[in-house]
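Feature request, filed as a ticket because there's no other form

It would be nice if the structure record came with a short human-readable summary line next to the C-alpha cells. Right now we just get the raw output. Example of a typical job, pasted below so the devs can see what we mean:
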Amino acid sequence: MPDEPLFIDHLMNVLKSHGVRTVFGLPGSAIGPLLGRLLAETEIDLVVSRHEAGAVAMADGYARATGNLGVAIVTSGPGALNALPHLAVANADNSPVLLITGEADQARHGRGAFQESSRDGVDTVDVFRPCTAYSRSLSSPDSAAVLLANALRHALSTPRGAVHLSVPVDLYGKACPSPPVAPGVGAMWGASVPGEAVDRVLTALLTASRPLILLGNGSRPALGETTSLVTDFAAFCGRHALPVATTTKAKGLFPEDREEALGVVSIGGSARAHAYIDRPVDIVLVLGSSLGEWASRNWTPALQASHAFFHVDADPTRIGRAYWANHGITADITPFLHALLQADARHRERGEDGSAASRRAVLRGLPPVHPSTPTTYHELTPLKPQVVMHHLREWLAQTNERILLLDAGNGTGWFTRQVPISAPSRALLPWGMGSMGWANAAVVGAKAARPDATCATITGDGGFLMNAVEIATAAHRGIGAIWIVLQDDSYNTVRQGMNHAFPGSRRITDESFRLGDPDLATLARSLGAQAHSVNHSGQLLTALGLAEKQAHENRRPQVVCVRVDPDEPGPFDDRHDAVSESFRQETR
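Raw output as currently delivered:
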C-alpha cells in the first residue's frame, strides 16, 4: 500500500520510541542505507568505532550505564564475525543490546555475493544464535516489522539479553507493513510473586541461625540505582541482622559499609564472606544469580544450605542448575523484594524478631569486608596493586557519581576484594564471559550515554592493548572517558596461574607472556588522549583527580598508566587451585 512506511523509516521510529539516542558502528557497504540515514538524523547520533568488537562493547556500555537499549551496526561477513565476542559478553550479562549486521542484496544470494552471509555463504544468523537471546534474518518486508519487534521483546524482557538481526541491504528501501509504534513496546515481565512463597522465605530467614542472602547480577534492575527499594531492603537486612553477600558481577548492589554486608563471595572475594560460609549456613536465599563457576567460587559446597535453599530468578532454567533448590521461585527480583518487604511489615505487627541478636553477634565476630593496606607498601616501587586500590578507595569516597567498568584480569580481583562501591557509583563487569579488552571500549559507550558522570575503566595492560584503539574514537568525538591501566608488562593472571599449576615453568612463562613493555603513555597520546604516568604511590591520587578534571573540562580521553609489581601474588588463589586440579585430571 502506498501509505506503508519504508522499512528504514519504521526502524528509525522504533529505535526512537525505545529511547535510543546513540548508535555505535563501523561503516560498510552492506549497511549503506542505514549509515546514510543515521548520518542525516538529528535525533540519533552515530558514533563510528575503530573496530566492530569495539562498537558492540560501546553499545553494551551504553546499555549498562542507562538501563536502555544499546544498538550497534556493522557490515556483513568478517565485520559481523568481528562483533561476535562482545555480543556474547552482553548476552551472558543480560545486557539489552541490538546488533544489526549487513547482508548482500537478496537477488544475489546463492551466487557467491561479496561477503554473503546467508545460508549459501557464512551464515551469520546461525553463528550468532548460540550466544544471543535471538538471531534472525529479515528476509521479507512483510515480516520485517514483526521480527524486529520479536528481537526487541527478547532484548528487553526479563531476563534481558543481546539480539542480532541480519538485514539485506535491499530491504531498507522496501515498503514494510507495520503496526503502530509505542514507547517501550514489546517488553514482558515475569508472573506475579506467589504470596505463600514469600511468607515461607521470610519465616525461614527470621528463624535461621546462619542465613545467607546472595545477590546476583539479576538483582541489578532492582538494586542498581539509588531508590527507596535499595534503602528499604538495606533497612530490612539491618533490622533482622541478615547477612548479605554478592557475586562479583553484583558488587556494590548492597552497601559494603553496613554490618550485614559480607562483600563478594565469589572467586577472589572477601575474607569476611569466605569466613562466614566456612561454617554451615542453614538458609540460603539466592536472588538473580545463575550460580556459575566464578560466582559460586568453584561451586563451593559451603553454599548448599543445610535446611532450605531458596532460588529466585526470572529465568527458570537457572534455578537448580548448580545447587539443589528445594524452593525455586520464578519471578522478577523487583516485585519479589517489594513483596518480601510487605510481608515483613505484616510480620512486625505481630511481634519482634527474637533471633536477630544471635545473628548480629556472629557478624561482629567476622573479619572486615576490605583489608587494610600495610603502610610499608606505600614506599615500594613499582606499586603494589593493594596500594593502587587504597588510592582508588580514597578517590571513590568523594561525592561524585562514578561508573567503573572493570576489565577481566587481576585488577578486577584486587578491586573486588579491597574497594567498596555503592550507589550512585557503580561497578560494571563482563564476568559472564570474562572477556579481556571489553571494558576499554565499553567505557566509551558509557560516557557517551552519561556525559555528566565520571566513567572510567580499570584494566590491565594486556586488555588495554586489545582495544586501546577506541581511545581514538573517544578523542574524535570529544568523549572524556578515563582509562586506569595497571601496567605489569605481562598477561599476569594467566602467568601466575600457570606458575601455580606448574611451579617449574616460571622462567618460560615470565618471558613468553611478556608484552614487550610498550610505552603506553605515548601510545595513548598518539590516539588523542592526555596521558598521566604514575610510578610511585604519591602520584596516583593527584593523577586521578587531574584526569577526572580534564576529562570533564576538555572533553578529552584520559589515560592513567600505573606501574605495578608483576610478582605480587594475585587475588585468585581459589581460581588457580581449581584450574590446577583440572590440569592434573587431564594428565591422569
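Something like this underneath would help us a lot:
The longest strand covers residues 97-103.
The chain has a mean pLDDT of 92.
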